[in-house]
Amino acid sequence: MKQAFDVTGMTCSACSAHVEKSVRQVEGVQAVNVNLLQNRMQVEFDEQTANPVAIIHAVEQAGYGARLHAGNGPAPDAASKPEEAPAQAEIRSLKHRLFVSLCFLVPLFYLSMGHMMGLPIPSFLSGAENAFSLALTELLLTLPILYEGRAYFSRGFKTLWRRAPNMDALIAIGSGAAVVYGVYALYAIGFAMGQGDLHAAHSWAMDLYFESAGMILTLITCGKFLEARSRGRTSEAIGMLLDLAPKTAVLLRDGAEVEVPISEVVPGDTAVVRSGQRIPADGVVLSGSAAVDESALTGESIPAEKKPGDRVTGATVNQAGYMQIEIKSTGEDTTLAQIVRLVEEAGGSKAPIAQLADRVSAVFVPVVIVIALVTAAVWLLFGQTPGFALARAIAVLVISCPCALGLATPTAIMVGTGRGAQQGILYKSAESLQALQGVDTVVLDKTGTVTEGKPRVTDLLPAPGVSEEELLRLAASAERASEHPLARAIVEHAAGRDLALPEPSDYRLSEGAGIQARVEGKTIYAGNPRQMEAAGAQPGALLEAGAAFSENGKTPLYFSENGRMLGLIAVADTIKPSSARAVQTLRKMGIDTVLLTGDNARTAAAIGRQAGIKRVVAEVLPADKERTIYQLQQEGRRVAMVGDGINDAPALARADVGMAIGAGTDIAIEAADVVLMHSDLLDAAGAAQLSRSVLRNIKENLFWAFIYNLIGIPLAAGVFFPFLGWTLNPMFGAAAMSLSSVCVVSNALRLRGFKPRFAEESALDPGEEPEVSTPAGTAESCPLSLGAGKNKKTEERMMEKTMVIEGMMCAHCKASVEKALGALDGVHAEVDLETKSARIRLQSPVEDDVLLQVVKQAGYEPVSIQ
Fold this sequence. Notes:
8-stranded mixed sheet; single chain; alpha+beta; 31 helices; about 50% helix; elongated; about 850 residues
C-alpha cells in the first residue's frame, strides 16, 4: 500500500534525511521518499505489518509532526487548494517575524556599530562610564529578536537532544553562543566597573556580540521568507491546473436546467455546456456540437471540433457552440485530476542524482558542529582571544548550509515537471525525467505516432476524358456501402469537398479483388488491376502510376464504369505534419531514430523516407518490437520508445524510457514513463530537451551548494587568516547562508521560461534511402522478449492456428487485423496478403469463436480457422 503524509517541522535536508531514516526502521515499510520542498512523504508499506499510525508515531519520535495527506490523491473539483493554506500561513508568519526583528535590529545595530561609522550615540550610552548601560540596552533590544526566532532554538535543541541535529541546531548553537558570550561580557563589564577599571569595561563593551546574534536570526528569517516565497512559485503549475476546475455545473434534471456545485455531479448526469462555459467533467457528447479549447490541458492552440459521440475533457472551454454531454468521470477519476496527481507525484519523487546530496546531508550538520568546536579550540591554542575564537566558530556554524543541498534537486524537478505539464508533457517520476536526458536512440512506432493513424486520400488521377470531381463522386458513391478503412477514406474526402453522393445499389464484394455497385444506373467497379480486367477495362498507363504510388507506400485503387476506366485514387496513412521536423530535431540533439512497424518493408521505407528516418525495421510482431528494443540496448544504447497501441506496451515497458502518445490506449499509457498529451511527435523532442534542461539546472544547483560550503566553511574558520588576513564576520556568514538557498531556488525558477527549440522540417535527401530490415528469426529467440520471465519450455508450448480471412486488400488491412488479434492477451498474429490468411500464435488457449469475433469486429470476414 502507498500513502502520502504531510510532515511538519522540517527545515533542511538533514531533517528530511532523519525523517526518512526513522520511518525506514518501522517494520513493514518497504520504501520512503521525503520531499523537503513539499513537506510531503510518500511511504510504501505492507498493510499486514505496518499502518499509518505507526508511521506517524515514528515521525513524531524523530521530533517532527505528521498527518495523512488530505485525500491521498486530490480531486481538483474542490473550490480550495489544500496545499496553499500552510504555505501562505508560513509566508505570513515569516513576514511578521521579519518585520518585528528588523524593528529591533536597526536600533541594536546603530548602538553597536554606529560609533564605527561616526554616527552620534546618545550621551547616556556613550563613553566607558556608560558601558554597562550600553550592554544592557543591547541585550534588551536582542530579546525580542530572540523571541521571534524562538522556533530555531526549540527545534534546534530538540534535534540535538535526539542526536539528529539539523540546520536549526546550527543557528541555535551559533546565535545562542553569541548571546551567552554577550551576557558573560555584561557581567564582566559590571565587575570591571565595580573595580574602577574603566579601560577593561570599555574593552568588554566592544566585544558583546549581541548584534551578531540579532543579525544572524534576522538574516536567517529574511532568507527563509524569500525562500518560502520562491518555493511557492515552484508549484504554480499545479495551482494553475487546479484553478481550471469549474466550481459549478448546469445539469438537466426532470427536463429543467439546474446549476449545482461540482461536488454533486455524478457519472450518468447530463450536463449542458454553452459557449464560454467550462466542461464540468469528463464525458461524451450526446447532442449538439462545439469548438472546444483544450489548450490549458494539452497546449494545443487550435480548438477541437466536438460532435455527438466524441469524448470531452473536464475543465476545457466551449469556445463556440452548444452541447449536452453525459458525464462519465468525476472527482479523482477525471483527466484533470490524473494530470494533477502525475505532476504532484513526479514533483515529489526523488531523482537518482539526488542520492549524493542525501548522503552528504545525513552527516553534514554533525560534521559542521565538530569543525566549529575544533576551530575554536585551535585558535585558542594559537593564543587568540576567546572573542576571536568564538567569532570564528559562530561563523562556521551560521555559514554552513544544508538547505541548499536539500533544495538543489526537488526545486528543479518540481518546476520542470510543472512546466512540462503546461506544455502537455507528463513525466510520471523524477527517475524517468533523469533517464530521458541520457537517451541516445528513440524508437518510433509508425501507425498513430509518426503517421496520422488513419488512411487519407493523397492523390486523384482521372483517366483521359474524366474530371477529378466525376472520378471522386462515382468512386465515393460506390464505396459508401463498404466499411473498409480505404473506402471510408474516399467517402470522407468526397464529403470534405461537399460532393453530393447518390445512393449505391446492388453492392457486391469480390474476394481479394475489390467491389462493384450500381450508381445512377451504371455499374462501378473498384479494386485492383485484376478487378478492372475482369470488368473489361484496361488500366493501361494507370498501371505505371499505380506502381509509383505503391513504391511510395500508398495503396492505389482503380475505378471503372461499364468497361471504361475512370481513374486511380491513391490512399495512404500519411505522416503527421510535424513528424519530419521532430526527427530532425532529435537528430540535431545527437539522438538516432528508428522506425518500427508491422507494415511491409516498402511502405515502411516510404514513411521513413518522408520522415527523415534512416533506420527502419519492418514487418514486426509485437514481441519483435520488444526484441528490437532489447537488441539496441545490448549494443550499449539508451533507448526511448514512443508508441500508442496495446501492442506497443511490452516495448514501452522494455525501453529505458517509454513515451506514450496521449491519444493512445490506456494500456500503453500505463506502461509508459512519459505521456505526451498532444499526440504530437514534436513533444518527444520537447520532453528530451526539457529533461536535459532540468538535469543541467540540478547540476548547477548541486555545484553551487557544494562549492559554497567548500569555500565558505574554510573562510569562516579563518584558514586564510594567517596568510591573507581574511576573516568572516558571523553576520556576513548568516547573510551568505540565507542567500545560498534563495539562489538555488531562483535558479530552478528559470525553468519556468523553458521553451523547446525545434529544427526545420527535413526528409531524407532525394536518392537517399533508409536502411530497412526485418526481424531475424522469431521473437522467442530473444530470452528477454515478450515472454521475459517465461522458460523455454513454456515458449515451445505456444499453439499455432491459421485463419483464412476475406476482405483484406492492402497493408492497412494487414495492420488492422494484426492489431485486432494482438489486442487479445497472449495472441500474436502475422497476416499474409497473398494467401489471405493470418498465422496466429497463442501463448495460452483462446477459443476459436473469440478469434473469429475479433476479426469480424475489425470489419473483415473470417472464412475458416484451423
